[in-house]
Amino acid sequence: ALLLSNSSTFSVRLPRYAENVVCVGTHSTLESVREAIVQEQSGAYLRFGDGDITAAYHGVDEMQTPNKNLSREIQAALGMQGEHVFKALMISSPMFDCLEKQMTPGNHQVSNKEALAMVEMAYPFWRPLPIRFVYSNCALAHAASAYESIALDFLETLRATKPFMFIGNEHVDSDLLEILFGPQCLHVTVPSSNAYSSIDSIEREARALLSRSDPSSFKTIVLAMGVSTSALQYRLRDIENLFQFDFGSLLDALEKWRTRGKTHNISPPAWIKISGFDATAFLNVFCERIGSINATCERYINNLADP
To answer: Are the C-beta atoms of residues 13 and 87 closer than 8 Å to each other?
Structure first.
């Protein structure tokens, strides 16, 4: 039987694979992640966008050539389970009653058809079934542009927990990493394109750094490596006392798109321009909150202003 969507704004008969879906909004997603980290719960926040789902089916992503092993690992990541495993899909649409203020086409809103396709394609690999809670895959980015205080609160809490490691783009400025995560945060560098080709060495380096630290102490690691992110999160799932957070495209916005290296043919995420997000203003407010990194903030923000 097909059920009606519980949306207050849209009435449609949902296929069986989507009839139990509950969209978790921006604020609730960030709050769930924040609580897990503050309470030192092992887990992960995994973001699956259209590129990730396409790659799971051996399709082409603009920053990653197709790879059968990558496809298998994204499929496995879609099946990850746990009380503090928060899996996110790109379903911000009327169909799932999932639109928030300032969401528009290109600014995180997708069509009903696209949202339903995301769920349908994730379904064969998703565990447990039926698909129930689907977290926001744009939570931090959308909060930064539409609910600034929520994003700032989350980032302030994240920084206060002293993230152990950032696994991400080789071009991310060390000053920005210190601003966001603190001076103790190690950087495992990742190529700006085709990251999966280096995933074995990236995993080895991450495990080596983690093994040198106290295994009984809880750690948060932050990841930002495109469609390969969930594959690495799946590989690291066995490590105890660890929460893995996929940072998402807010990092690109705060770098003003300099994270893509020489891949100038790739356009920035549309939400950055559509929302009018001001990276300099956002960082100025965040730096005022932290208060102890004025020199680093001034240096980075001045550098950001350079063409």
So the answer is: no
Taking the C-alpha atoms of residue 98 and residue 95, their distance in angstroms, rounded to an integer, is 7
Is 0.85 topped by the overall pTM?
Answer: yes
> What does the alpha-carbon distance between residue 61 and residue 180 come to, in Å, rounded to a whole number?
28
What DSSP character marks residue 215? Answer: T
pLDDT at res. 267:
78
| 3 state SS of 163 | coil
For 55-190, list the strands marked E by DSSP: 85-89, 104-105, 108-109, 133-136, 165-169, 186-190
Cα dihedral: 134, 119, 62, 104 (round 10):
-70
Which has more confidence, 261 or 119? 119
Query: In the chain, what are the helix, strand and coil shares in percent, each to the nearest 5?
Result: 45, 15, 35
Residue 131, by phi and psi: left (phi above 0), alpha (psi -120 to 50) or beta?
beta
Q: Which of 214, 212, 210 is nearest to 239 (CA)?
A: 210
Which residue(s) pair with 169 in the sheet? 190
**Across 115-155, where does the E strand assignment appear?**
133-136
Distance CA 280, CA 302 (A): 9
Q: Using DSSP bridges, classify how beta strands 85-89 and 43-48 pair: parallel, antiparallel or unpaired.
A: parallel
Cβ 56 vs Cβ 231: under 8 Å:
no
**Domain residue spans in the chain?**
16-305
Both tokens assigned to 5 = 């969507």
Sign of CA dihedral 176, 180, 184, 190: negative
Q: Count other C-beta atoms under 10 Å from residue 211's C-beta.
A: 9
Place 36 in a pLDDT band, splitting at 50, 70 and 90: very high
Burial class of residue 231, CB neighbours in 10 A (0-12, 13-18, 19+) = buried
- Look up residue 124 and give its two tokens: 């064969």
Q: Environment class of residue 117 by beta-carbon count within 10 Å: exposed (0-12), middle (13-18) or buried (19+)?
A: middle
DSSP H/E element including 246 = strand 242-246
